[in-house]
Write a structure and sequence with these properties.
By secondary structure, the chain is an alpha/beta fold. It is built from 9 helices and 9 strands. The protein binds 2'-O-acetyl adenosine-5-diphosphoribose (OAD).
Amino acid sequence: MKIVVLTGAGISAESGLATFRDSGGLWEGHDPMQVATPEAYAQDPGLVQRFYDERRAALSRVEPNAAHRALARLEVALGDDLLVVTQNVDDLHERAGSRRVHHIHGRLRSAWCTTCDARHEWSGSLGDEPPCPACGARTLRPDIVWFGEIPYGMDVVEQALWDCDLFVSIGTSGLVYPAAAFVHWARGATLELNLEPSAGATDFAESRQGPAGSLVPAWVDELLGELSDESSDEAARPPS
Ligand code: OAD
């Protein structure tokens, strides 16, 4: 069974990372448009770099939760048949053990040199304008897809959605495109797991409400149970 899981900020909420829209439209005290656009960066690079430096530093203070771990468990069972597509820029899926994770909005722990186009794994700060390890230019920016920029690897995602038997959306408000449209691109069954019905909840065949930390492990257990029943039925069937 081929499954594509889309995750958003809600899956990391119980790890202690703030979502974008749950606190009156403010994200850690900032309007996302003032820190997550190329225009904001051009106008005040120091503010934007400090904002992302703080988000990057915060990663070392949080841990994956039961929802991230459940998806890693599902990957052990499904292997390459599971693809996690995340809008999150944190590294909690990877730290929980997931290997097939596609970050369409980039990653905090990656720095991108706008001079030579190199990308570097990065855990420190960028606000002090360190030189690019490849070309030496002091033009490293967060490797984050800002509003108005093109999400990464959409061809891979589109193909995976086209091929999947099940698309599951977890912890996302369904307000930001293209991710909000994935439910329409998916060829298979569709399921939403979210704290509350998202903007696109009625587009899903099924929508379950609750915190990801309990909904996701319960769904993974249910699915693994169904898959193991199917394989024992198959084994019990007499050869034709
Ligand atoms: P949002 O903040 O828009 O939505 C988070 C969703 O998670 C909401 O629907 C919440 O109800 C839900 N939620 C909160 N806590 C939860 C929990 N414990 N369990 C399950 N669900 C929970 O975040 P995203 O949808 O991820 O883009 O935002 C999408 C994009 O908008 C982000 O990637 C970012 C942002 O601006 C860029 O920065 C380009």
